[in-house]
Write a structure and sequence with these properties.
Elements (H helix, E strand, L loop, with lengths): L2 E9 L2 E2 L2 H14 L8 H8 L6 E9 L4 E7 L8 E5 L13 H9 L4 E6 L2 E5 L3 E6 L2 E5 L7 H8 L4 E3 L11 E5 L11 E2 L10 H5 L1
Parallel strand pairs: 5-6, 9-10
Antiparallel strand pairs: 1-2, 1-3, 3-4, 6-7, 8-9, 8-11, 11-12
Length: 208
Amino acid sequence: MSQFIESIKVEDQKTFLLELHQKRVNQTFSHFGKEGSIDLAKIYKNLEHDEDGLFKLRISYDLDKKVRTQMIPYAIPEIQDFQLVENNSFDYSFKFEDRKELDKMKMKSKAEEIIIVKNNHITDTSFSNLLFLKGKDWFTPNSFLLNGVQRQHLLKHKKIKEAEITLQNIKQFSHFQLINALNDFDDMFIYPIDRIMNLPGSEEYLDL
């Protein structure tokens, strides 16, 4: 039976974007023809979590509604370098717990983190959606692998826009940042585009 996960931000005993997480869980059950769902708010309440600070609530579940939870202290990672990795067949439209294919891509790369390229289009890293800066505006690829909760939230509140981002136009953007349920939109926490070690036209790109 497939296992799925939700990683929910909990800061100072408060949950974030829970409504969007719940919507994704409900859609997962519905897509696979299962009635009902699991109640994330109830699961969190039953944990009686009483510590301040930033935590990742990791909820693993299956379609029989078996649930495992972990509350993990969280710090936003600082990543040294990124590598574009091509995979035209990879599908991650549901948040599966099985990350073997992602881990395999990471192991083959020469960088700390990967940016997955599918059919010439920029998608996501191994654990986040992406935003790219052009001028004063932030754009997220319309070719995402997983429509993350933070991505949905930022689009809904018009803080970012969607764009077609490809190997051909990626160098038109000056900076990028990583977003997911635990990594918020943050103008202070951004990477220059050349932190991607194998941008098209670079020697490293030709070596791969």
